[in-house]
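To: structure subgroup
Subject: Chain for Friday's discussion

All,

I'm putting the inputs and outputs inline so they're searchable in the archive.
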Amino acid sequence: MRNLIIGLILIVSTSCGGNNKEDKSTFASGEFKEWAQTPPMGWNSWDCYGPTVEEHEVKANADYMAEKLKEYGWEYIVVDIRWFVENDKAGGYNQTDPIYVLDEYGRYQPAINRFSSAKDGKGFKELADYIHDKGLKFGIHIMRGIPTEAVERKLPIKGTDGITADQIYSTEMQCQWLRDNYTIVADKAGAQEYYNSIFDMYADWGVDFVKIDDVSRPYHKAEIELIRNAMDQCGRPMVLSLSPGQTPLSEAEHVKEHANMWRMVDDVWDLWRDIKHLLDVAQGWYPYIAPGTWPDCDMIPLGRISIRGERGEDRMTRLTKDEQYTLMTLFTIFRSPLMFGGDLPSNDDFTLSLLTNKEVLRMHRESTAVSQLLQDDTKVIITSRNLKTNEVYLALFNISDSETLDISVNLKDIGLNGDIKVTNMWTGESLGKVSNNFTQKLQPHASGLYILKP
């Protein structure tokens, strides 16, 4: 009996999360896929605030999400790049004399002049608590590697016996567009411990989502494996997002075993050419759309963007209404993660309607067997199916720049026979019954999204 009691104590002590290394859970291989069984949905600060977002702006977006979007499945609030720099600027990055905030172990800390609740070494704990109290989840962006300042100051790596940052870095493959970090040499003693130390800290803060940049293009396999190991040992479920694209299709098998979502393309902005590029690149990724692992179309550049952003002036999105429907139709039928990039409190009614269509979001959440039926120079046809309701979803895209098109689908090609009831998903309008062929006339850059029911 005594041995049985001791055994039960050991089981409990190793299966419960905690702040100390000895009490933390270690997640089983592949268990991370449970954290994102449906595509993650949330808000990210990049498109509207670039590297300058402040705590009050994060809270304002969280308040809006809790009030107007949470009931539709939106839940993540993500602070994007360089939250640890005190003197960054709108419209780009301050790369000449950035003032970094690090702790004694070379780990970035939130800049207190932007995130006042981080004072006294609290990090993002209070901001995460604020967001959790609203029933939402909290995320952050980080760069691959170890801070250059930690290397220069030879700061110790937590969890090691005297290993310092200058012993695990390399200048090879350093990020070309942002020089904050050096590459971590994966097989060096202390490399895994450094990543463990930052994810342990994020777990203590209450982080639920981590977007890691400069890791997919080129594809840093060794560091991705360090990151996966660190997340699995930290004791807290966190969604892992890899950025930016293009993630190489040749690494599809590896990435789906290490990340919940990964970028297919570079940054998507409010430009038609970016939507067309997405449609092209997406063609190789349909087989990898699966619960827990999602090819990512990038953020949604709708609503009010670039308030202090990287590209262009403060504006409402430059995409026309037809193009906005097309973007949202692609993102939802493809089952991409949905990370809204505009400032939520600035939404107009039309933008809000794009984020709260129950039927479209049910398709995004529940559909299976997403596949492309056709793509040529002027049109794209994508379909999927809801096994719970026996509905078929159909998306038609006119990608021509000047030609109005009749786009037609033979219903037998999507497994349907007889009289089929058709409904426009964006408007809720019934289009009656059709048989044999379904045809719609679409203007240039326009699209249609339909439910087909036997």
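Points worth raising on Friday:
The radius of gyration is 23 Å.
Residues 55-69 form the longest helix (15 residues).

D.
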